[in-house]
Amino acid sequence: MATPWWLAEEALPLPQVRVDRADVEIVGAGVTGCSCALTLARAGLHVRVHDAREVAGGASGRNGGFALRGGAAAYDKARVWMGAERAREYWQLTEEALERLAGCAGDALRRTGSLRIAADDDERDELRGEYDALREDGFEAEWRDEFAPPLAGRFTAGIFHPGDATLQPALAVGRIAVEAAEAGVEFRERQRVASLDGLEAERVVVATDGYPSGLLGPLEGLIIPTRGQMLATAPIEQRLFECPHYGRHGFDYWQQLENGRILAGGFRDYALDTEFTADEQTTPTIQGALEEFVTGLVGEPVEITHRWAGIFGLVLDFLPVVGQVPGSERVWVAGGYSGHGNVLGFLCGDLVARALTGSRHRLLDAFAPRRLLGS
Question: What does pTM read for this prediction?
């Protein structure tokens, strides 16, 4: 039961590749590391990827399976924090990344749209502000204020994002890894990197998001490990949800798969004192809240077949952390997606790879790791 639903099926076999001497070594074989490796290999570099588990064994195989444009912050708030031009460029980049991810993922990604919904009038007002900002800047969005059961009476309004998708994240990342290996990338699975001294490459990318690596020097611990808990039900006959849903400021999220299973996660605000952790164990408090929530949605108790947890990296300003680690010419980092890692990880892995090959995107100024040190 502790195995995530996404990791229950057999992983894709990776082509066996050996790199004599790596130009770049990547720690982490999730979506960020695999995306970074693919871009670097296509640029002609020799790349080696290390992971203490296997491809997608961390957060990339343990999340809600949402493929969303945008960042962790609401768009209208991002315009205030980043400036209107940067925020618009950021959202456009995530839309482009989602298109490219769809090309890599194949049938592991389905363009269903997503629905962000408000649980009370205050959240409704916040969503309306974001909707107005999105429409003002030319982004697709649809306002919804009438819902059929089981949403009716629970949620007051929402934004439908037509271009978003549902994703089998472990399968999608596995396909990116296969493509990278076919381009010449070596993967060393089940080998933990305990020290940079054991790596030969002139450049190292740490792509572990919220999982502590011990490799980030002054940044260690500033991307805050945060536990996300989930469950999966047995298939149910009723087709209740056609796309991923997320509400209560992202504390509730769920979707129904094509086979009828409901996957639900969140509720960490029920026990925040325990959820800032790198421990992947589930807890009775949050699992109980999730089960009660799903029972309410379905209208009757449903068999729970899987329970699991994964660790994501929370950053207080809700912006990714991408760039050189302060004080090091050698080490780069890409992470800190604050729970929005499927698309942002794919994007930021590509951005850091391009920076390493001399094509640094100007948006990296906003993502600079040094900001976490207050400088």
Answer: 0.96
